[in-house]
Specification:
Strand order of the largest sheet: 4-3-2-5-6-9-8
CATH topology: Rossmann fold
Number of helices: 11
Shape: globular
Helix content: 40-55%
Structural class: alpha/beta
Order of helices and strands: EHHHEHEHEEHEHEHEHHHE
Low-confidence stretches: none
Radius of gyration: 18 Å
């Protein structure tokens, strides 16, 4: 696992409480993760998420993943946990506007210590967001604690790819993304197994590189003005951000970073 000690929760809250978070949503949509709807459906299918279940979304952001699960998997109830007030407030407003507030709740809290009761949910869910959490071991432990015996921990995340990052690449990538650390596939597998879970799925989705290509193409060909408006028409900042995204694009095509999918079962 690669780490950057100077990045912490406050840096992540600044991203998603400010214009940078709005910029990510412009490019990636409400579902701020690689693959959007397709990725969510793949995760739900492989995790066996079904009608009538109750789930918890750790690092839920604006709640788009929960709205997906309620609408398209007929999940009975979802509870989201996120540490950034702006996205929690936005999520509550969007759920109310879509008539889903009676089935989706939010808690403003650190996801490693949510304060929610033990064994309260059929599954724990996350989509490309656990990379923002400093203590991955505590996060996995919290996810396992929250699900019932026989329940499921299901998530996608940005991970170090099979080709590996050197120290300078890792520092630049983590600093740009405001990730305090980035785990790899086998590291997450080990944490899930240490939590007593049986790991059913732990693999690279293969989506990262083509989707970064898409995002850069959209910014360059269609969304330039919209992106500039979000960052106060600062063309210098736009050039810097585009340069860092191109660096990330190179890492993705070299197999040094990836999106991975994980499904694990808590023992009965």
């Amino acid at each position: 696992m690669k780490t950057l000690s100077e990045i912490g929760l406050g840096d992540v809250q600044a991203v998603y409480g400010g214009p940078e978070g709005d910029l990510w949503e412009l490019v990636m949509g409400e579902q701020i993760h690689i693959g959007g709807f397709t990725s969510s459906m793949d995760l739900a299918e492989r995790a066996g998420v079904r009608a009538g279940q109750e789930g918890v979304d750790l690092c839920c952001c604006n709640g788009a993943g929960m709205r997906f699960l309620v609408r398209f998997r007929e999940v009975a109830r979802m509870h989201g946990v996120d540490a950034t007030e702006k996205v929690v407030e936005r999520g509550r407003a969007r759920c109310a506007a879509e008539g889903l507030a009676d089935r989706i709740d939010f808690t403003l809290a650190d996801v490693t210590a949510s304060g929610l009761p033990d064994a309260a949910f059929d599954f724990a869910w996350g989509e490309d967001a656990w990379c923002y959490v400093t203590d991955k071991e505590k996060l996995i432990s919290e996810a396992v604690r929250l699900v019932r015996p026989g329940g499921t921990v299901a998530f996608t995340d940005w991970v170090e790819g099979a080709a590996g990052l050197d120290e300078e690449e890792a520092r630049r990538f983590l600093a740009f993304m405001k990730f305090p650390s980035i785990q790899d596939v086998e590291g997450y597998r080990a944490l899930l197994e240490a939590g007593g879970c049986e790991v059913a799925v732990a693999e690279d989705t293969g989506r990262f590189a083509p989707y970064v290509d898409l995002y850069l193409d959209m910014l360059g060909k269609q969304l330039t003005y919209d992106a500039l408006k979000i960052i106060g028409f600062d063309t210098g900042l736009m050039d810097t951000l585009a340069g860092e995204m191109r660096f990330m694009q190179g890492l993705a095509h070299a197999g040094k970073i990836a999106q991975a999918i994980f499904v694990a079962k808590k023992p009965l």
